[in-house]
TrEMBL record:
Domain of life the protein comes from: Bacteria
EC number: 4.4.1.8
Names of required cofactors: pyridoxal 5'-phosphate
One Pfam entry name: Cys_Met_Meta_PP
InterPro entries: Cys/Met-Metab_PyrdxlP-dep_enz (IPR000277), Cys_b_lyase_bac (IPR006233), Cys_met_metab_PP (IPR054542), PyrdxlP-dep_Trfase (IPR015424), PyrdxlP-dep_Trfase_major (IPR015421), PyrdxlP-dep_Trfase_small (IPR015422)
Pathway connected to this protein: Amino-acid biosynthesis; L-methionine biosynthesis via de novo pathway; L-homocysteine from L-cystathionine: step 1/1
Organism of derivation: Sphingomonas mollis
Catalytic reactions on record: an S-substituted L-cysteine + H2O = a thiol + pyruvate + NH4(+); L,L-cystathionine + H2O = L-homocysteine + pyruvate + NH4(+)
Protein's UniProt name: Cystathionine beta-lyase
SUPFAM superfamilies: PLP-dependent transferases
C-alpha cells in the first residue's frame, strides 16, 4: 500500500493500518514472532547493531518484533501528525510511562478531577513519593486553566469524557494555554479512540489508550499505548526503554485482531448506546443521563464541536432510592454482566459513586448512579432488560 493511497475513512484505516508488506510477507496478518534472543551474523554485526536506533529493528526481544511494531504502527497511522507509538502491558502502565517521560522532582502536574481513579492514585502515590506535586482541576475549566499555571507546572493531564461522570473537556482551549507556556499535554483518549477524536491533530503531545477496552474489544487482553507527537517522542522512547516495558507478541497480535473490526464495532456500540440513553432519558425513574451526546451532560456543546460520533459507555442517575434499590436493578439484569472494564462485545452494568473519587468538583445527585457499557447485543433486548430493572428499582424504592 503506497502512502498517498491511504484513506482518511476510519473503517478503511483500521483494516489497512500497520500491515507492512515486509512484516506480513505475503499473508494477511503479521504473524506472532516470539523472541528474546536475536541472533547476529558476526561480532561486527552485533557491535554495529548496538550502536544504531532499535526502532522497528530486531535487536533484543524486549524491544519487540514485527508483531508488536505492527500494532504500534497502526495506532500511529490512525493519528495524523503523530511520530510514533509505544505499547504497554496495561492502560495504567501506559499512563505511568507517559507521565514519567515528562515529570521530574519539583514539577507540578495539573490533573483533571474526573480522571480514572488509578490515574489519581499514581499522582498521589508514586509521583508524590518522587517529589512531584499534583493539583486537581475542574473538567469544565477550559481556558481558565491558565489561572492554575505556576512556575513549576510541567504537564496538564486530560481525560475526556471523564471517568464515571463523562464531562467533556475543551481540549482545544487547554492545548492553546499549554502551548503558550511550553507545558506538555496528555490525554486519556480511551473512550473516543483516535476514530472519534484524533488527539495528536488537536495538538495533544501524548495520547493514551487503554487498548484493553475498544482496541482489543473482546474482554480478554490487558494492553495500553501512548502515541506521541514529534516533539516528545524521544522522551517517551527513552523512558519506556529505561522502564523495561514490553508487551507479549500474543497480546499485541490480539490487539491487532481487535483493531480490524473496531470501526464497525464502535459504530454499533455508539448507535445502541444512544438509543438506550434516549430511552432512559424519557423514564420517570431516571433523573439524569450522562452521555456526552445528550444535552444534560456537561460539555455536550464541546462534544458536538470536536467528536466524530458517540461511544458506548455512559452513566445515569436514578431518581431517589438507596443502595439496595440500585442493587435490585443491577442484580436482576439478564443481559448485563457486573464487572469492571468495558469496551468488549458484551454489555456491563456497575454501581458508581463518583464523589468518592473527586477532590475539587462535587455535583449533587438526585440518587445513586449506574454506569453502562453497551455491548453488541440487540439494543431492544437491552432496553427490555433495563425496563424490568427499573421496575425492580421502583418497587424497592417504594
Ligand atoms: C480502563 C481504563 C484505563 C486503564 O486501563 P487498564 O488496561 O485497565 O490498565 C485507563 N483509562 C480509562 C479511561 C479506562 O477506562
Amino acid at each position: 500500500m503506497s502512502h498517498d493511497s491511504r484513506s482518511d475513512k476510519p473503517a478503511t484505516q483500521v483494516v489497512q493500518a500497520g500491515r507492512r508488506p515486509e512484516w506480513t510477507a505475503g499473508i494477511v496478518n503479521p504473524p506472532v514472532w516470539r523472541a528474546s534472543t536475536i541472533l547476529y551474523d558476526s561480532v561486527a554485526h552485533l557491535r554495529d547493531s548496538a550502536g544504531r536506533d532499535t526502532h522497528h529493528r530486531l535487536f533484543y526481544g524486549r524491544r519487540g518484533t514485527p508483531t508488536q511494531w505492527s500494532l504500534a504502527d497502526a495506532l500511529t497511522e490512525l493519528e495524523p501528525g503523530a511520530e510514533g507509538t509505544f505499547l504497554y502491558p496495561s492502560g495504567v502502565a501506559a499512563i505511568a510511562a507517559a507521565l514519567l517521560a515528562i515529570l521530574s522532582r519539583g514539577d507540578e502536574l495539573l490533573l483533571v478531577d474526573s480522571a480514572y481513579d488509578p490515574t489519581r492514585g499514581l499522582a498521589t502515590g508514586l509521583l508524590k513519593r518522587f517529589g512531584i506535586t499534583t493539583r486537581f482541576y475542574d473538567p469544565m475549566i477550559g481556558a481558565g486553566i491558565a489561572d492554575l499555571i505556576g512556575p513549576n507546572t510541567r504537564a496538564i493531564f486530560m481525560e475526556s469524557p471523564g471517568s464515571l461522570t463523562f464531562e467533556v473537556q475543551d481540549i482545544l482551549a487547554i492545548v492553546a494555554v499549554a502551548k503558550a507556556h511550553g507545558i506538555a499535554t496528555l490525554l486519556d483518549n480511551t473512550w473516543a479512540t483516535p476514530l472519534l477524536l484524533p488527539a495528536i491533530a488537536f495538538g495533544i503531545d501524548y495520547t493514551i489508550l487503554a487498548c484493553t477496552k475498544y482496541i482489543v474489544g473482546h474482554s480478554d487482553v490487558m494492553l495500553g499505548s501512548v502515541t506521541a507527537g514529534p516533539d516528545r517522542f524521544a522522551a517517551l522512547r527513552d523512558t519506556s526503554f529505561q522502564l523495561g516495558q514490553h508487551v507479549s507478541p500474543d497480546d499485541a497480535w490480539l490487539g491487532s485482531r481487535g483493531l480490524r473490526t473496531m470501526a464497525i464495532r464502535l459504530k454499533q456500540h455508539g448507535e445502541s448506546a444512544l438509543k438506550i440513553a434516549h430511552w432512559l432519558n424519557g423514564r420517570p425513574e431516571v433523573a439524569t443521563v450522562l452521555h456526552p451526546a445528550l444535552p444534560d451532560c456537561p460539555g455536550h456543546d464541546v462534544f458536538v464541536r470536536d467528536f466524530r460520533g458517540p461511544a458506548g459507555l455512559f452513566s445515569f442517575v436514578l431518581n431517589g432510592g438507596d443502595e439496595a434499590a440500585r442493587a435490585a436493578l443491577i442484580d436482576g439484569l439478564a443481559h448485563f454482566g457486573i464487572g469492571y472494564s468495558w469496551g468488549g462485545y458484551e454489555s456491563l452494568a456497575i454501581p458508581v459513586d463518583p464523589h468518592r473519587h473527586r477532590s475539587v468538583t462535587r455535583r449533587d445527585q438526585a440518587g445513586p448512579m449506574i454506569r453502562l457499557q453497551i455491548g453488541l447485543e440487540d439494543a431492544d433486548d437491552l432496553i427490555a432488560d433495563l425496563d424490568r430493572g427499573l421496575a425492580r428499582f421502583a418497587a424497592a424504592r417504594g
